[in-house]
Each structure stands twice: as structure tokens, then as C-alpha cells.
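pinging the channel bc i need a second pair of eyes. not urgent but kinda urgent?? the chain im working w is below, pasted from the shared doc
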Amino acid sequence: IDTQLDGYDLGSPQANTVIMYNAALDGQESTGIDATTFNTNVTATANNAIAAAASADLAYNWAQQDEDIEVAAGEYSAYHWAQKAEAASGVVVQVVNEQDGELATSTYIFSFDNVIPTDSEGGLFMQKLFYPTHATNLLRVDVVANLSHSDDGRALSIGLFQDGITNALACVSTPTLSLAPANLVLTYWMTAGTTNQIAFMVRGGANGSGTTTFNGVNGSRRHGGVMASGITITEYKA
């Protein structure tokens, strides 16, 4: 019976030892390794390879497992939570802003009574075009306007208007100041209602004759343009 097989002496008197030969030394016997130890090492190496592959798969799942698929009981991947955050309501979709530090004046009267102001009142001081990404999303419109009026003792007002709508969407008022501009601040929320262009306009004036000055006093600009007015529109996912 041929007891030589691929470098192992199956007929060795050392029954519990694997004897290996170096072909380059014409079969000269090399150091023996206990068969039990050899088998244990082989098994451990295989198990380590399996464990490493499993760890790699688990790491991938924690990072990339599909949305709503658990990685462990009640626990989900980073990708899952990123998708949830993106879909959550209240996420900011886009922000646009128009800042204006230039001088402007108007002599148009802006009423101060219990009637909603219309787009024929006051002077047009700011305008911003906006394109919503989804009709059901929410829009927040923030307005800051620096206005003064030549006649003290009047009510100075600004109104936010939308193209195609006669009445103001929102309005705020303050007593007139002839020596320094009043800082009028307005915030308005609405549903976009469309993905077409929306033009927002800010009109302002006082409820009496005289001159309203935008970003200045008595027809002259103040602070070289850095005392700027502005309109900011933020779209939120509904």
C-alpha cells in the first residue's frame, strides 16, 4: 500500500503526528506537527474567516440596510434614518433672500384703519420672486423694512402682498419717526399652493401727507447702505 500522499507519511509510526516533506530536499522529513493541533488550527482559521465575513456584512447593514428593515431588533441603519429625516415634515427645502440697502422714497398714503390694506396703498419698496418645489409645502416670509416719515405723529405701516391678490397678506405698523428710521418686522406663513412663480411685494407708507423714506431719513440714505432692509422666503416640507 502506498503510504506517501501529497507530502504526508500516512504510514508513519508516529500515529498522532502529521509528517511533512520538503520536495526540494528529496523527501527529507521536516518538523512534525501534532495532528490534533493541526486540525484545531485549520478549524480556527476557517471560523475566523467566517466571523470576519459576517462582521463585514453586519457593518454594511448598519450603514446601508434598506429603509424600514431592521438590522437588529428595533434598530435600523444609518440609511434608514437619513431617509426618515429627509421625509420628515418641517425640513427646510430652500431659502431665498433679497437684501436692499438702497434709498427710495414715496408720497403714497398707507391707511391706518380697520380695513385690510390693498395693493394701491403705499409705495413699492421690495419685491422677490419665488418658485416653490411642491404645492403642499409651507412658506415662511420674513420682512425687515427700515422706514421713516417726514411728519411725526403718523402711523407708519408696511404690508406684504402677493401678485394677483389685491388685499395684503399681512401688515404691521408703528408710530412715524422723522429723525431716524423705524425697523418694521413682519413674518407670514402660508401654504405654497402652486409650483409656479410667486411674486411677493412689500409696500409701505404713512397715513397722512408727507414723504416716506426707505433706508434713510428725509430723502437721504443713512449708514451707507449697510442699514439694509430685506425679504427672506423659506420653504418647509409639509
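so The chain is about 15% helix and 40% strand. and The first helix runs from residue 35 to 64. — does that match what u expected or am i reading it wrong
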